[in-house]
Amino acid sequence: MKKDSRLVLFDIDGTLVHCGPTPRRAFKRALEMVFGTAGPIDNWLFDGKTDPLIVRELMDTAGVKWNEESVNEALDRYVNGLARELPDEPAKEVCPGVRELLDELQRREALLGLLTGNVRAGAKAKLESLELWRYFPFGGFADDSYNRNEIAEEAVRRAEEYMGRAWSGKDIVIIGDTPHDVGCGRHLGARAIGVGTGRSTAAELLAAGAEAAFDDLSDTATVIQTIIH
């Protein structure tokens, strides 16, 4: 892989890490503090959604009015709880093969970034708790938009700003664990690689349109070859 030949954008939850019950617990407490209820959060599907969208959906379902200010207040409280509690979360873990893959991509001088539905401070809290934040100098976050495709566009814009060059098409690789990540790849005209360490299986991600999919990222050599293909 020649220098700067690939921009590789990673999802976080279910792709890079699992953070145990702490994020949902912190999210629930924050909503209760701001809105008086967390709605049906215990059974709510977070996968592939942005943090602000989750707040809006839960409050709409609960019949509670919200505005931009109250959504932001809830997310600020959530992030504060997350940063405080994650260091002591015993169930948090890095997904199989992730550290080795990131190290090898760095060695090959690929440009690494994030494409996530987390707000930036939440992403930082999660990845810092598992010593992964240092790999990612930029990203697209839920602070940028409620819409995941717009977040993807912002991640690419920041990559261009960071490196002083343009990225497009097959030079961009998105790695994620949901069909939403695959959809971002399609939106950008990029390549999407699925990983079955979240709710979706590798087969389901292939069916959603991923160019390739793996049960996990532990076969570093094969994943690297797929990225640089």
Keywords:
8 strands, alpha/beta, 2 domains, DNA polymerase, domain 1, 9 helices, 12% strand, single chain, two-stranded antiparallel ribbon, 229 residues
Order of helices and strands: EEHHHEHEHEHEHEHEH
Task: Indicate the low-confidence ranges by residue numbers.
Answer: none
Mean pLDDT: 95
CATH class of the largest domain reads Alpha Beta
C-alpha geometry: globular
Q: Structural class, from secondary structure content? A: alpha/beta
Q: Give the helix proportion (percent range).
A: 40-55%
The description of the largest β-sheet is: 6 strands, parallel
Radius of gyration: 17 Å
| CATH superfamily caption of the largest domain | HAD superfamily/HAD-like
| CATH topology value of the largest domain | Rossmann fold
Helix tally equals 9
The share of residues in extended strands comes to: 5-15%
Strand order of the largest sheet: 5-4-1-6-7-8
Question: Care to count the β-strands?
Answer: 8
Name given to the CATH architecture of the largest domain: 3-Layer(aba) Sandwich
Number of individual domains: 2
Task: Note the gap between the termini.
Answer: 9 Å
Can you tell me about this structure?
- Helix 8 (202-207) links the parallel strand 7 and strand 8.
- Strands 5-4-1-6-7-8 form a six-stranded parallel beta sheet, sandwiched between helices.
- With 229 residues, it is an alpha/beta fold.
- Helix 1 (22-35) runs antiparallel to helix 3.
- The mean pLDDT is 95.
- The protein contains nine helices and eight strands.
- It folds into two domains: 7-19 and 93-228, HAD superfamily/HAD-like (Rossmann fold, 3-Layer(aba) Sandwich), CATH 3.40.50; 22-88, DNA polymerase, domain 1 (Orthogonal Bundle).
